[in-house]
Amino acid sequence: MNGPSVPALPAQRPVRGTSEYLRNLNRSAVLAAIWKQPGLSRTEIAEHLGLSKSTVSTAVSELVGRQLVKDAQGRTGHKVGRPSRPLELDLERNAVLGWELGVGLVQLRVMNLAGQVMASRQTDAAGLGPAETLELLGELSEEALAETGWPVLRGLGLAVPGLVSPSDGQLQLAPNLDWSGVPLGVLLLAEAKRFLPRSGDEGFPAVLDNEANAGAAALLDWPQARARNLAYLSLDIGLGAGLILNHRLFTGGRGYAGEAGHLCIEPTGQPCHCGKRGCAETRINLRRWRQASGDRNRLAEEMGGDLGLLLSHLANLLDLDSIVLGGRLLEEAGGAFLEASRESLATHTLRGVQAHLQLLVSPYGQATSVIGAGALAAQVFFSQPRPEGSLEEWTSFTAWLRPAG
Ligand SMILES: [Zn+2]
Hints:
By secondary structure, the chain is α/β, with parallel strands linked by helices. Helix content is 37%, strand content 21%. It has twelve helices and 16 strands. Zinc ion is lined by residues 262, 272, 274, 276, 279, 281.
């Protein structure tokens, strides 16, 4: 499909003059500190970040002026001496949007900056093309934002069941949507523009990634998950993994990392749509479950056994702390499937790895990826700008929309 070319991506706006740049950098660091640890006072933030108290006070005043931060209600600091006023994010006035483009359906969540869901929509989108699907999401989002009193939009994330190029947002292949070569990043930016009048002076980031990667991002802050080294397995029509290694999303050189569905578990098995044979996805998938007749319990055990084997490869290779499962197959195939996975994983995993490994079910159910899409956008919003020359790069396709003028 031919689409418009990718515009220059001002992920980091050029800032004139060192002092303005430094002020933005400090303000961003102060905001991120309050996001990660609500209740810190100005003095505590200064101590944590190694900044002077006056620098922190200036940054906080700016953030209060932009309605991002406020004094925490009904709480006072516990420090001896002068009372310190704790700070927190202004959760009511700000939001991020998470979008998920699934197979046959789309869904969205309006979330506050603490990740709590304020409004949601889900609808059938079978037969719609990429641009029409995004337009539908845009319209539904306006409705949902109106329902929550039009908070200021601070980010928009989109999760898709396919391979996304992090550099230009090209959807290379989404086999279960039957889409390939779609300039989805460009289409997302075009659709996201409708929200610019509802964003702050600085605009907002739009982020695009694979749905399993987004799902993993949703779990970064889940207290139950030891998320230093984590794999999120999305079990649906397709099978994908989102990997967090050393607390960071890992997507590989071109976004292909996590294609666990195409790890071969039966070399002489069924042909896969990828052109290979015996891929895990040919044996463990929602379509097979829904179309099966006969002994469902036996099929659940068989699929679970295969999944456990697949998971053991990931665990042994990466020395994972947590594996988290989600998706419609898990919900439909139920307890027998999960138990068989757990047994098979234990059978095939090295003892030293197994001692620290936990197998969990995502607390967000079918919403894991859509919530993760919002979480990805929030993470980008809270980390801009980054220091010049920083080695860190976004692993997702990311572009910052700014109001004209
Ligand atoms: Zn395959």
